[in-house]
Amino acid sequence: MKDEPGAFATTVLKLYFDTDNNAQTGGTDKFKGLAGFEFRSELDSCMDYADKSSACTGGSATKPTAHWAAAGLDRVKSKTGLMAEYDGIVDSMGFPGEIKAPRFPVVGKRLEGKLAYANLGVKPGQVLRVLVREEHKDPGAFPEILLTLK
User: Fold this and answer.
1) pTM here?
2) pLDDT-derived band of residue 64, with 50, 70 and 90 as boundaries?
């Protein structure tokens, strides 16, 4: 992160995964200029508050008592269209019907998240195409990455 966390929680990065490394398959989001991605992950800067509430977006009127990071994961539901639709698999807060993401303490400006290979349907040796977008930046996209899993 550019700055250490303040009093409000937010999504910091969105990661898009093309698990078959084929831009012709997977979902499209013409609004964002994306094609061929099967999954989206959001790396969130989350917080616990003095009133015993927690948030990964927004906040509370009370003081933060803990800063933590978590990575959610969604499967692309629609294959075509102006904007992609998603089905949740892993949720940063652990909402019912989805797997609760592991929490990692925020240390300074460093966030950490973890995604299970099983949730992405991938295995060691597989090559993924990954696009990382910094949230709240325009355009905020880093160059695409070809990632070989260990």
Assistant:
1) 0.90
2) very high
